[in-house]
Amino acid sequence: MSERTDYLDLDTKDETFLDATELVLNMGPQHPSTHGVLRVILKLDGEKVLGTECVIGYLHRGVEKIAENRTYAMFNPYVDRMDYVAAVSNGLGYCEAVEKLLSVEAPPRAQYIRVILTELCRIASHQVWLGTHALDIGAITPLFYCFRDREEVLKIFEKYCGARLTTHAFRIGGCIYEAYEGFEQDCKKFCDAFLPKLDEYEELLTTNRIWVERTKGVGILNPEDCIALGVTGPVLRASGVKWDLRKAQPYESYKDFDFMIPTGLHGDTYDRYLVRIEEMRQAARIIRQAVDGLPQGPIMAMVPKVIKPPVGEVYHSIEAPKGELGYFIVSDASTQPYRIRVRPPSFVNLQALDKMVRGLLVADVVAVIGTLDIVLGEVDR
Amino acid sequence: MKLAPLVRKILLVDLIKGLKVTFHYQPPSEAITEQYPLERPVIFERFRGQPRLNSNPDTGESLCIVCNLCALACPEQLIVVKGERNPATKRKEVVSWTYDVSRCMFCGLCEEACSTDALELTQDYEMALYSREGMVLDQAALERGPEPVKYAK
What number is the ipTM of this complex? Predict the structure, then answer.
């Protein structure tokens, strides 16, 4: 019995996936350098990236929906769980938005305490970013130093409000906790000790040849694209746009402080690194000024026990460590918000990924995700 | 290439600068690792941990007046307080008190709502269990408070 070969097409050469010019590769969701559970579908030509698509939603907890069946005060702890690296900033944004809706203002002392904690939180958030970003690129040492120094910030948080990460530090109308004994000294001590440490990080990275080669000219974003995509925060400022909500629309007591907005020239990963490093210095400067000028007085404004804002809607945004963090709240005069929509900086900044990585190599995708400083808890909410 | 960067490159100036930082932290006195559980971290007074129901130290009576404010303040609705009015003393007394620690996020809203200092979040942080049983605390367990495990060499 002869073998049947007529159904086999032996003449034409089969194209295998190895011969294909384009390759689709899944990066994540369990990839350590996606900083959480981000899945990026990469279209590759060899090592070259032709296009990307982000798949998000792996950390979706429905925070905005939860808000609809919690009272205003009850929802406060949940906002800490969006950007869990900068929980204090989230709390500040939410409390201010509800205060705007109620047309109350926190007393000056509360405002200063808020500013101090938010700036400490900015430093802590940037330290996490620097540590993990450097780790992604291959420098392991800064991670340990950053986390060691971040511990001091977390200790101040724990002493002040009793929690390290999901702090729930502020309440609608001010702060519930009075500054503990030695709060000012702790903050000053931290600032004094932190600036030399920051110089150490810079010694490790700024002129390091591997770091410079891996970051300079990688992931360039020009200012027009930044604005078109709605990118905010250090990513926008590194492209040369001087836009910081602390200066542009001063909230809290930011108009009392003297600080600078660092901007970059090229909009590449290296510039974003320099901008964030400088931001940490400026944050330390703000903390010093706020501690020196900490006024006496009440820390809580007159807020009714049961918060029932009038019918209306409000949008309030603050400069979180990652960019513009906005809260849009619709009130129907009941104790629960009708709708809360959060404008998270990470979610909007992530849009720029495709624009930044086209034409780069796969290894640069890791660097670009790191430089965007995304937190998936905030992207998915 | 300019001369200065080339010299820096050949002499590995930047590398040595970085190594200086890392070697500066080499002596054991610079180590900051805590040898848990033998070495315990310092827990600050305002820390929000395992809940406890306080009672009057003189009489041993529970400080809870069954006002239900904690249960109303809790975002997760994990506190259930049931009480009955005692006709003899004309005061509300606790019938059952449960606190589901497994769902608690230690936001501290219940502690703030409490009108008599009865409910308190203590400094105990060792709440890990092998199963979910025993995570719903009743009045007796809450009044006993946390029982930290002592470790010894």
Answer: 0.82
